[in-house]
């Protein structure tokens, strides 16, 4: 065991891993937050604005939004990163490093988040929305108090999926100069044939995914009134 920790590759991995984990975590969290700032309202509009059901959105605008989301989702992430390089330089002054990778991460994740939110909201029974409209609720009340509230467990599951996807995108971004565990695995582990760096980074990424999934599942179960009586009683008191 002492010989293992005395290995130069192991020592270098132990020295660089904490900062790589920090880069991976903070870029993933910031990109996820910004992606939801864009994608959550867009997903709501795609559902609430369909056929003027809740929001009066012009048909051509709905078509344009759907086309834009589909176009961005169809571009592979590595290609999108290259396309967005000028925007990264414009906003941050550089296209290399972990902060610069946040721009393409948001560009790739926002349409993905919009579709996840759309899918979650479409699970809601149309009769619930019709009942809220019959009671005279405003569009804002229907969206916030009915749609988002009733679909909370599904939305949390979607958030978990989106966060893990963005984490994997960030790892791929290491191929073109981003930092974090992806860069450690690709630039140092693979290209320099440093086996400890490669497999150590992979193991840490797997552990991060497991952590995110566990937290997301626990929160989803906690907010699901179908399987959590406490949550059901709390909502009834409201």
Description:
This protein has 238 residues and is mainly α. It has one domain (2-237): MetI-like (MetI-like fold). It has helices at residues 2-6, 8-48, 59-74, 77-92, 98-121, 126-134, 139-150, 152-173, 181-190, 195-223, 229-237. α5 runs antiparallel to α8 (152-173). The longest helix is centred in the N-terminal third of the chain and has 41 residues, at 8-48. It starts with a helix and ends with a helix. The model has no long low-confidence stretch (mean pLDDT 84).
CATH domain class: Mainly Alpha
Largest pleated sheet: none
User: What portion of residues belong to β-strands?
Assistant: under 5%
Work out the number of β strands. Answer: 0
What overall form do the CA principal axes indicate? elongated
CATH architecture: Orthogonal Bundle
Helix share, percent: over 70%
Arithmetic mean pLDDT: 84
Could you state the order of secondary-structure elements as H and E?
Answer: HHHHHHHHHHH
Kindly, what is the distance between the CA atoms of the first and last residues, rounded to a whole number of angstroms?
58 Å
Radius of gyration: 21 Å
Helical stretch count? 11
Structural class: mainly alpha
Low-confidence stretches: none
According to CATH, the homologous superfamily is MetI-like
Q: Provide the domain count.
A: 1
CATH topology: MetI-like fold
């Amino acid at each position: 065991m002492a010989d293992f920790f005395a290995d130069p590759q192991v020592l270098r991995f132990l020295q660089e891993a904490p900062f790589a984990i920090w880069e991976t975590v903070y870029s993933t969290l910031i990109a996820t937050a910004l992606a939801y700032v864009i994608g959550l309202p867009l997903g709501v509009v795609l559902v609430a604005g369909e056929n003027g059901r809740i929001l009066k959105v012009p048909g051509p605008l709905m078509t344009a939004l759907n086309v834009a989301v589909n176009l961005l989702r169809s571009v592979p992430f590595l290609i999108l990163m290259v396309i967005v390089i000028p925007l990264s330089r414009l906003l941050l002054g550089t296209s290399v490093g972990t902060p610069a990778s946040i721009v393409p991460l948001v560009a790739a994740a926002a349409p993905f988040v919009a579709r996840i939110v759309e899918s979650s909201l479409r699970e809601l029974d149309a009769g619930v929305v019709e009942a809220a409209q019959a009671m005279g609720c405003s569009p804002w009340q229907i969206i916030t108090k009915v749609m988002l509230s009733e679909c909370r467990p599904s939305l949390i599951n979607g958030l978990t999926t989106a966060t893990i996807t963005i984490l994997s995108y960030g790892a791929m971004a290491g191929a073109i100069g981003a930092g974090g565990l992806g860069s450690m695995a690709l630039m140092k582990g693979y290209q320099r044939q440093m086996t400890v760096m490669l497999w150590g980074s992979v193991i840490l990424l797997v552990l991060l995914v497991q952590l995110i999934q566990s937290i997301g599942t626990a929160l989803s179960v906690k907010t699901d009134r179908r399987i959590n009586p406490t949550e059901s009683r709390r909502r009834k008191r409201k």
